[in-house]
Amino acid sequence: MQLFPLKTPLLVREDNLLEVILTALGNAELSLQEGDVLTIATKIVSLTRGLLIDRTTVKVSAQAKKYAKITGLPADFMEVALQESDEVLGACKGALLTKRDGHLMPNAGADQSNAPKGYIIILPENPSQIAREIQKSLEAQFNCKIGVIIGDSRVQPLRRGTSGIALGVAGFVPVIDDRGRKDLYGREMKMTRRAIADNLMSAAEILSGEVDEKVPLVLIRNAPITLTDEDLTETMSISPQECMYFSTFLSDR
Amino acid sequence: MQLFPLKTPLLVREDNLLEVILTALGNAELSLQEGDVLTIATKIVSLTRGLLIDRTTVKVSAQAKKYAKITGLPADFMEVALQESDEVLGACKGALLTKRDGHLMPNAGADQSNAPKGYIIILPENPSQIAREIQKSLEAQFNCKIGVIIGDSRVQPLRRGTSGIALGVAGFVPVIDDRGRKDLYGREMKMTRRAIADNLMSAAEILSGEVDEKVPLVLIRNAPITLTDEDLTETMSISPQECMYFSTFLSDR
User: Fold this and answer.
1) Mind listing the domains of chain B with CATH numbers?
2) What is the per-residue pLDDT across B175-206, written as a single tens digit (0 to 9) for each?
3) Residues of A with CB below 8 A from B158's CB?
4) pLDDT given for residue A12 in this prediction
5) Which conformational region is residue B191 in: left (phi greater than 0), alpha (psi within -120 to 50 degrees), or beta?
6) Is residue A163 within 8 Å of B195, Cβ to Cβ?
7) Which residue of A has its CA nearest to B107?
8) Helices then strands (H, E): number in chain A?
């Protein structure tokens, strides 16, 4: 398996994301091949779609003020995070813990870093549909079948530092189901599935960085993926009842 | 960045792990180069050290019986998990949620899969020290500086499928600290750190599988790591008070 970091310039709304990808591939003297996976940082999807909230237009609610006190984050930023959330699970110093589109994330994915001054970046709606559009365009361009991930970073329980999360996927099976297979001693696996899309995004994060690297695209070649055109986005998420952490923490409530 | 899966035969206590690694590299016609990272599945560390509990010798406590009912797992397995835990955080269907050596994990890392019949595999003590011994031996053998990860898999909150976790590391900086760096617009980063060792282990998990693949070793070349001989294992973990999930869930308790 090989990973190629693809540099881009600083992107703005006027940029066309597909052209940005094609230029980045061209600059790296790479073309796409059958079974390649392209990872795309959500931030450049948001930037090229102009998903920026002008902070002067944000009307701060009492709830946002309450969360600003707990998190230590600006109240207008908390207001945007609240508006972007499907559900608020709670707050702690540094973050509002939210759900959005079935994904757990701090501040509903709203972000102050790498946003132009005076703006807050928000996540795109339906990242898998955007991934699908990019997949189809690139497949037509390079005449091969590929996978696309639109991903972000997240923190892990009791771990320091971020890893990758696939918010949108297209073109391949994002979770490998090993249930029913036999282990080395012939014992049947009952639980094991692998978060292949999240792991690919984590691998990409090693190269893409989070600050000023300008590597929002990573091409992954020879990953053992299964190509499909089925939309399997929902298979990446589980309910709180199925989740080891949630079902443990919420059991006495 | 390139990843090479390294196959091994089915391993037993009589096998010498260093020889196993050298044979696997030789079979793949690979030698180690400056800055390479070798990931090693904890399971082969445990197997070659004979860290196997004979199930007939396990005395099941009342507490283990209680957790067996909640989890649906065998009571003798729960007993071993309890003995291997530093702290039990709770239980849900399918797993006992525990802490061990600062790492959060199901069943304290005790495992029935890929264990010989009648045995439960347990984790080695001090995986970073084992990683260091392997690092030093391989560095002497290949005359270069490398990184070594001894890792396992884990589940993520509200996500389906496993990703990688580095339990032991040696030879490189496992968490990249981006705090103080400036973003694309000159704004200083206050929070961002990247779990590079966990991300490398997640990347390796894409190739190594969890069932009968016999790929417990992955060589990662050209990863942007910083070599060091300092033991930075503890920097990978945070306290429940610093953790977004724990500090949120535990705030009303």
Assistant:
1) 1-50+123-253 (3.30.1330.100), 52-122 (3.90.1660.10)
2) 987 656 665 556 655 556 889 999 999 999 99
3) 99, 102-104, 237-240, 243, 246
4) 86
5) alpha
6) yes
7) A244
8) 7, 12
CB-based burial label for B57 (10 Å; 0-12, 13-18, 19+) = exposed
Which tokens hold the place of A204? 């990409």
Whole-complex ipTM: 0.92
Enter the tokens of residue A148.
Answer: 């696309």
**Structure-token pair, residue A191:** 């639980």
Chain B contact set for A157 (CB, 8 A):
104, 157, 243, 245-246
Contacts of A188 (CB under 8 A, 6+ apart): A180, A181, A182
Q: Which of residues 141-200 of B touch A (CB under 8 A)?
A: 153, 155-165, 175-176, 178, 181-185, 187, 189, 191-196, 198-200
Nearest to A245 among B187, B239, B245 (CB): B245
In tens, the pLDDT along B129-166 reads 999 999 999 999 999 999 999 999 888 999 999 999 99
